[in-house]
Write a structure and sequence with these properties.
Helix content: under 10%
Distance between the termini: 46 Å
Largest sheet: 12 strands, parallel
Number of strands: 41
Mean pLDDT: 92
Strand content: 35-45%
CATH architecture: 3 Solenoid
CATH superfamily: Single-stranded right-handed beta-helix, Pectin lyase-like
Shape: globular
Oligomer: single chain
Number of domains: 1
Low-confidence stretches: 1-20
Structural class: mainly beta
Strand order of the largest sheet: 1-2-5-8-11-15-19-23-27-31-35-38
CATH class: Mainly Beta
């Protein structure tokens, strides 16, 4: 098994142990497995309502795990420590399996307390397939994704464009320690942590994303939501050193484009910490009625592009964002209470992702405009009246 503490993942594991479980209770069988062969069999033969309990160990898979046409299934590590239950694919550069877990035509599937690592294509692929219902109510929680060369989690829908409804990705860590080879797709920039489309009512919250990078600094968004997605919430996440951190939309048109459609509708990006990498902190394109509230973006280059909005923008609301760098764009956007600039000394440890405010953050303290939908900060602490700009509400004396 891997020494995850040595790899800098101790903070996430400590948080996992101290949180109540969000995995649903099942009324079916509990099936315990202790080998890759037994795991594959248990998943293949699962009955609706089963919990598949995977004992501690490293599982080198010979083929992807397939959850197809199932309902109310939980797949989880037994010890509730994801570092102790590791599912391994065929390797970063190739080899079988290229995917670790595939979920198709299934409802109410929960995955928790597992590590997914060393795969060339997908850690988890949530896939719509013609003739099957679109996946819905998919939960991924308290998992680690490490060194997945293309997409840690990928989501696609069927050709009928029916959405995948009601998903949750929470308390996970996504990290690459490698960069794709330039010979890979799009000269090595076709890499992301979460790339999903045709979503409805999904939440991505309380996760950490680190070093999701392409060969040329052009990696896709660590959280990349596009192609007719609706009511998606991205909040309280931390991003460190990713080429793009949050991308709502794709600068190019949607796949199988239907004239008049956009990438995102009615979404919220709120209370995120972003230490940017080579590219942008937040990229916004092809959207309508999206709210971007109380995010903190730190560009190591004070002239970096922290928030960028462009191409088919309507009813975009940018409020109370704190950006070391620039906020720029074009389109129908309301900008309120944002603070941007060099912001020297504002943050506790910005290069390592700690963007809590210091006493020197005078330009951000008590300068926010009122926002009823953002009454708590990234730590779940209540905001003052007036509140501080950015994701953190500074606490303690001398405020």
């Amino acid at each position: 098994m891997m020494d995850w503490t040595a790899l800098g993942i101790s903070v996430v594991l400590a948080a996992v142990g101290g949180l109540p479980s969000s995995l649903p209770a099942r009324d079916g069988r509990t099936v315990q497995v202790d080998s890759a062969q037994k795991l594959a069999q248990a998943v293949r033969e699962a009955r609706d309502g089963d919990t598949i309990l995977i004992r501690d160990g490293e599982y080198r898979l010979g083929s992807p795990l397939w959850v197809e046409g199932k309902k109310h299934i939980t797949l989880r590590g037994e010890s509730e420590d994801p570092g102790k239950t590791v599912l391994k694919g065929g390797g970063w550069t190739g080899g079988k399996p290229e995917d670790i877990l595939v979920i198709r035509g299934s409802e109410d599937i929960a995955v928790g307390y597992l590590t997914f690592m060393e795969a060339h294509s997908y850690g988890i692929k949530i896939e719509g397939v013609k003739g099957l219902m679109n996946p819905r109510r998919i939960t991924v929680t308290r998992c680690i994704f490490r060194d997945i060369a293309t997409r840690h989690i990928k989501g696609t829908a069927t050709d009928d464009r029916k959405p995948m409804e009601g998903g949750l990705v929470r308390y996970c860590r996504f990290e690459n320690t490698r960069i794709p080879d330039r010979r890979w797709l799009f000269e090595g920039d076709y890499v992301s942590a979460i790339d999903m489309m045709f979503l409805k009512d999904w939440t991505f919250a309380d996760n950490t994303f680190k070093n999701i990078k392409g060969a040329n600094g052009g990696g896709r968004g660590a959280v990349f939501i596009w192609n007719q997605s609706r009511n998606v919430l991205v909040e309280r996440n931390t991003f460190i050193g990713c080429d793009r951190s949050i991308a709502f939309g794709n600068p190019s048109e949607p796949t199988n484009y239907v004239p008049g459609t956009l990438h995102n509708y009615d979404g919220i990006i709120r209370n995120n910490f972003i230490t940017a990498g080579a590219g942008k902190g937040i990229e916004l394109v092809w959207l309508d009625n999206v709210k971007v509230y109380h995010n903190t973006v730190y560009c190591p280059d004070p002239n970096g592009l922290g928030i960028h909005y462009f191409r088919k923008i309507s009813r975009l609301d940018l409020a109370n964002n704190l950006v070391r760098g620039r906020i720029e764009g074009e389109g129908e956007a309301a900008l309120r209470g944002n603070v941007a600039g060099p912001l020297e000394g504002y943050f506790v440890d910005p290069l390592n992702g700690d963007l809590h405010l210091t006493a020197k953050a005078a330009g951000a303290l008590k300068k926010a405009v009122p926002l009823p939908s953002a009454r708590e900060d990234i730590d779940g602490e209540k905001r003052g009246k007036p509140a501080d700009v950015g994701a953190d509400e500074r606490q303690g004396e001398g405020i």
